[in-house]
């Protein structure tokens, strides 16, 4: 049985059991809130700051104040220096843009790439909402599957989790450009965009570059170890989850396995170079590894840079 088909049937079966779905949503929420408080919230706050400053009051100048903050009009009227005091506008709009195309249902480890995206998305939503930011969700394949505008509150977090875990498996390609164009149309103010995808899309650089010119875009790539290395198990049929095309190969031949691995590494290297050219931060996530350390490393690197 092809792995993505097995995952598809399991997911479809799970969607018919409301009690199991509710239990999964509850477990994800509890785990994400714990991880948010213990591991990511402090770093998140230092990295993702508010969109601007709001004027709060004018007060007398004190030793050490930045002279650039002096309000010269008030100073002239009062005869002594006064400075403007600002308060950071902390609220941010955080968008989770999640690929649910056919290829994300593949998984050779304990979870599929789709399940990995749901866990990561839930944690990011929990961290953002604990920080009083608003969270929006966009699920896409070769079209827009679901869109939730940015909102705050626990009820909204539960809605986000429910959408992440209950997306129906469908055979569809990846169209990152279409998702990016939709997002650019629905959000005009600066936002933080987490794009979770395996990026099995040939032409996403141009639209993603335009998105990154206005918004803070972070690419979280979904990977599976079998996409980099084939086991030596003899003749097998590989099915392209998004097109249905089937290719029969002999994994017992070392040259076949080496060519497969080399092509996969070249694709990953080119993808990373594309992100560098676009000035988009990226973290590689895998179905066979914990994802929290990768997120911590990403946030810490951004914190040092800022």
Structure characteristics:
elongated, disordered N terminus, Rossmann fold, 306 residues, single chain, six-stranded mixed beta sheet
Describe, in plain words, how this protein is organized in 3D.
There is one protein chain. The protein has nine helices and ten strands. It folds into two domains: 262 residues, Rossmann fold (3-Layer(aba) Sandwich); 37 residues, no CATH class. Helices cover 46% and strands 23% of the residues. It is an alpha/beta fold and 306 residues long. The radius of gyration is 23 Å and the shape is elongated. A six-stranded mixed β-sheet has the order 5-4-3-6-7-10, sandwiched between helices. A two-stranded antiparallel ribbon has the order 1-2. Strands 8-9 form a two-stranded antiparallel sheet.
């Amino acid at each position: 049985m092809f792995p993505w088909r097995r995952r598809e049937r399991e997911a479809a079966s799970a969607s018919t059991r409301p009690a199991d779905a509710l239990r999964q949503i509850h477990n994800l929420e509890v785990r994400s809130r714990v991880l948010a408080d213990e591991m990511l919230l402090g770093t998140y706050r230092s990295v993702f700051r508010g969109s601007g400053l709001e004027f709060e009051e004018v007060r007398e100048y004190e030793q050490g104040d930045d002279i650039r903050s002096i309000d010269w009009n008030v100073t002239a009227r009062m005869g002594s220096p006064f400075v403007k005091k600002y308060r950071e506008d902390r609220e941010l709009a955080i968008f989770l843009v999640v690929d649910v195309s056919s290829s994300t249902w593949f998984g050779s480890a304990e979870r599929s790439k789709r399940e990995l995206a749901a866990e990561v998305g839930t944690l990011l939503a929990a961290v953002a909402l604990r920080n009083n930011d608003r969270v929006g969700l966009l699920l896409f394949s070769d079209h827009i599957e679901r869109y939730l505008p940015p909102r705050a509150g626990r009820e909204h977090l539960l809605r986000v989790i429910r959408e992440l875990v209950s997306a129906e498996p469908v055979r569809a390609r990846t169209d990152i450009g279409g998702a990016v164009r939709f997002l650019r149309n629905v959000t005009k103010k600066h936002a933080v965009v987490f794009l979770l995808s395996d990026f099995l899309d040939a032409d996403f650089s141009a639209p993603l570059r335009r998105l990154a010119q206005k918004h803070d875009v972070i690419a979280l790539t979904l990977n599976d170890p079998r996409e980099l290395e084939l086991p030596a198990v003899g003749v097998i049929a590989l099915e392209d989850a998004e097109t249905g095309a089937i290719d029969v190969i002999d994994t017992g031949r070392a040259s076949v396995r080496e060519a497969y691995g080399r092509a996969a590494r070249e694709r990953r290297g080119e993808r990373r170079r594309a992100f560098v050219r676009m000035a988009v931060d990226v973290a590689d996530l895998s179905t066979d590894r914990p994802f929290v350390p990768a997120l911590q490393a990403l946030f810490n690197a951004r914190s040092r840079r800022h």
